[in-house]
Write a structure and sequence with these properties.
By secondary structure, the chain is of the alpha/beta class. The chain is globular, with a radius of gyration of 17 Å.
């Protein structure tokens, strides 16, 4: 049985767990080790199963506790060279993960503990930002947590996925009417910022296929979005392509400050 849970999703901290009876991995470590341990144990899971960490980029809400958790677990930390170079000088990770450092090439499949994965470029205002396509014992997942647009190359991975974790960060009207400074608003909605509900919906129209079992909306803004707005926008896009939510695919919004439900899938 494969288990997936979002332990936290948003600018307050990001961390996702994917595992089974044999092994597990984390995508990003933006929350503390004790919080990770407790939230896993509350769902019948153990942090001791974690045998690798994948990093999407070097922003603090994704790596704040990466150094301490990687050191404590003594597990490899996988990321492309640009991300590792940024981690080498970041206060949260500087000098802490050298023994765990695993540099991977983008657009190249890697394998560890029976898990196959590939990193691919997505546009975001970090030193380097990637999404991940993960073949986890036959179930295929795509993680795209921070991105200003969805490139065609990224869409190709989505079209092969059984499960898609995709950012739906902001509602454009809420952002424009909100109290953020003009410079911050521009950073968010321009092509290297974050994905709006409408952009997410457009991407879903482009990548939905019969094998897409579930879609998870992640990294929702606390100030410029609501779960209902994000869900309704994505749901309308999916149904417009002829797919029925609940019958053909499932749709979820991942919560910000608390873990999601535990999602389970049969191994192939």
């Amino acid at each position: 049985m494969i288990q997936f849970i979002s332990l936290s999703s948003g600018s307050n901290g990001n961390c996702y767990y994917l595992g089974n009876e044999e092994t597990a991995l984390l995508i990003d470590v933006g929350i503390g080790g004790r919080t990770i341990k407790k939230r896993l144990e509350d769902n019948g899971l153990s942090i001791s199963k974690v045998e690798m960490i994948l990093v999407t980029h070097n922003h603090i809400d994704h790596i704040k506790y990466l150094g301490s958790v990687a050191e404590k677990l003594s597990v490899p930390v996988y990321a492309p060279a640009g991300i590792h170079q940024a981690l080498d000088v970041h206060p949260c990770t500087k000098g802490m993960i050298k023994g765990c450092r695993r540099v991977i090439k983008k657009e190249t499949f890697h394998q560890s503990k029976g898990v196959k994965f590939v990193a691919f470029d997505v546009p975001h205002d970090a030193v380097e930002t990637v999404g991940y396509y993960i073949d986890f014992f036959g179930e295929k997942f795509v993680f795209m947590t921070d991105l200003g647009d969805v490139p065609e190359a990224a869409m190709e991975y989505c079209r092969m996925a059984d499960h898609l974790i995709i950012e739906s960060n902001f509602d454009l009207d809420m952002l424009i009417r909100g109290n953020y400074a003009p410079e911050l608003k521009k950073r968010i909605y321009e092509g290297n910022g974050h994905l709006s509900n409408d952009q997410c919906a457009h991407a879903l129209k482009m990548v939905m296929h019969k094998g897409m079992k579930s879609v998870y909306l992640c990294h929702l803004s606390e100030n410029n979005n609501t779960p209902s707005l994000a869900y309704d926008c994505a749901s309308e896009a999916i149904t417009s392509m002829g797919y029925e939510i609940g019958r053909d695919t499932k749709l979820f919004c991942l919560p910000r400050r608390e873990p999601s439900p535990l999602f389970t899938f049969e191994e192939r």
